[in-house]
Amino acid sequence: MPAPEHDLSASRALNRQLVLRLKACLPMERFPPRQAAAGQTLHSAGDALTQLPIINRGCIEAIHFLGDDGHSIIPITFNPGEMAFASALFCTTAINVDLVVSKDLEAHWVPIRDIEQCLLGSAELMVLTVRFLAQRLREVQARERDWMARGTHDRVCAALARIINETELRPDGRVLIAATHEHLSARCGVSRPKLSRELKALERSGRLKLLRGSVEVLDPESFRTLRWLPRQP
């Protein structure tokens, strides 16, 4: 039975299986864990990617750019126990994806060449990799179709809901999102002018307040419960 449209559990389970097998095959002591803070860009679209992160804690988001019109989508978040962006394996062309830390990260960065040699030496590992990539492709294609079909309001609210869930409350109980409009527009998959108009509309509705260099969410629950609903006229 196929997985629901946004259910990534099948590919995540295969990813974790693959990581466990790779850790048993690779000399992990050669790749000590490295840390990175939330918001840091680990890889920029178009640059050569020579290592892949195996995540101990934290999260990485892949921001996939579509063409040159400034639009993008976020196809997947990589979680602890997973390897990010395995589709870069056996690939000789630059990937048009940013890898951004969405939650403080600790990860082993393993050279792609070492991973490929490990896979080539084990038919079982290669089959597991193919199963994982095929399942992930089906899931991401379904997610991309749904994401691109949404309007600006739905995209912005859905992205804000995800950011709110990742953001720790301040001691005074306020929810502050420290991010530039450029970063928010990338996460929402809309242009900066469209994002600005939507944020101002949300501010007028009393759901958030725009500050210099940050956004204060005044009604977090409204994003969690209504993020898939269209805006009322």
Your description of this structure?
There is one protein chain. With 233 residues, the chain is of the alpha+beta class. The chain has two domains: 9-148, Jelly Rolls (Sandwich); 150-226, Arc Repressor Mutant, subunit A (Orthogonal Bundle), CATH 1.10.10. The chain has helices at residues 9-25, 112-120, 123-149, 152-166, 181-188, 192-204, 220-226; strands at residues 34-36, 41-43, 51-65, 72-78, 97-111, 175-177, 208-211, 214-217. Strands 1, 2, 3, 4 and 5 form a five-stranded antiparallel sheet that branches. A three-stranded antiparallel sheet has the order 6-8-7. Residues 1-5, 67-71 and 226-233 have low confidence and may be disordered.
